[in-house]
Design goal:
Rossmann fold, homodimer, 7 strands, seven-stranded parallel β-sheet, alpha/beta
């Protein structure tokens, strides 16, 4: 038993050390990095597409897309104008710092301002693995239901920013925004939240302003 | 390295042996069991509620609800008329045969016809752990998007039956049913599929007839 626990600690220790190295390399190159997490189908790739459209010309952006199979997401990010790297995890349910390291090695970091890492669609496992990014962003989506903060507390506790996607579907779905927000507030008080729709574009300007503000603040503080 | 692989093999071996024991106990008691899997918010609990409503009086049903936190799902299943047992996995991203064993020990199996096991909301990890149930059922939901079979092939390959939930939202969402079904067909040819809506009740009679047919067939073949 203690033998097995030691092994797990070693794995996590190695991951955290490599995450710190990833962060140092991003800092040295002046690249602000976001770890984007969500359930399958919450709209990670759609949000990246819309963000790229709005940022076009103003920032140099790369996307790293984690999936257990296919390059659908990287293809979409590339079509939307990003330098895109697909990580196929080969079945693994989350990205880790080693995988991000391999993706970083394929990018010209000096030529970038912003890196968006699209994690594997999963509300549980990605929360346990640091990658070395600067901010963790969770996308909730209205059709998932208003009880998700209560049911996936680790994920909701661990993120810096929350995007509530698919608000265009609110008229067609039973979703109590007050109940949802109460759950969020219990777990992560004062979490900055952006209700958006990638279909109607509602809320996207505010979200993109947050991204721009972070990239600019990061550059100014000298990283 | 080989040491670590041996440990993993031991864990899976133990899980499969206990899954076989769970199956033997369900068979001996004449209880047909379903392992219900899906993304967070695809509608597992809603489908259980609607199934219980339609089965009311005709079958004795228990629900085992797996979550990383809270008893929201078991509370809903109990309110809908099932004997309900909540398994809090304490952070684990899937149910395993040990957890189901503990739940079975809290049920009077001889007093049941049907057991519905609601797995943790996750399209990846639950696919790797046998529980001892008779059928694996996956719920896809329309708002998740039509690319999910391509992106989560292990889950789509491993199930016996597919429910496509939230078809009432098809008018409001870009979802190419042909593209979705092509992906399913590639991975799991001839997979039996039930398009349903737990809001409008569309398709629920066909789904419940499948459940009833399986329970009756199971009883007739003497397990």
């Amino acid at each position: 038993m203690s033998e097995r626990i030691r092994i797990v600690e070693d794995i996590m220790g190695a991951n955290d050390r490599l995450a710190a190295q990833n962060r140092a390399d991003l800092d040295a190159a002046g690249v602000f990095a976001i770890n984007l997490m969500a359930s399958p189908g919450a709209g990670k790739t759609s949000l990246i597409e819309k963000t790229l459209e709005k940022l076009a010309g103003s920032l140099r952006v790369a996307a790293v897309d984690g999936d257990i199979a296919t390059s659908i997401d990287a293809d979409r990010a590339a079509a939307a104008g990003a330098t895109a790297v697909q990580i196929n995890t080969g079945g693994d349910c989350h990205l880790d710092a080693v995988m991000l390291r391999q993706a970083l090695d394929q990018l010209e970091l000096d030529q970038l301002d912003l890196l968006i890492v699209e994690n594997v669609g999963n509300l549980i496992c990605p929360a346990s693995f640091q990658l070395g990014t600067h901010k963790s962003v969770l996308i909730a989506s209205v059709p998932e239901g208003d009880d998700k903060p209560y049911k996936y507390p680790t994920m909701y506790k661990g993120v810096d920013t929350l995007v509530i996607n698919k608000v265009d579907l609110l008229p067609y779905i039973k979703f109590n925004m007050d109940y949802f927000r109460q759950g969020v507030e219990l777990l992560n008080p004062n979490l900055e939240t952006f209700p958006v729709s990638c279909v109607t574009a509602e809320g996207l300007d505010e979200w993109v302003a947050w991204v721009m503000g972070n990239v600019e603040g990061f550059k100014q503080t000298g990283k």
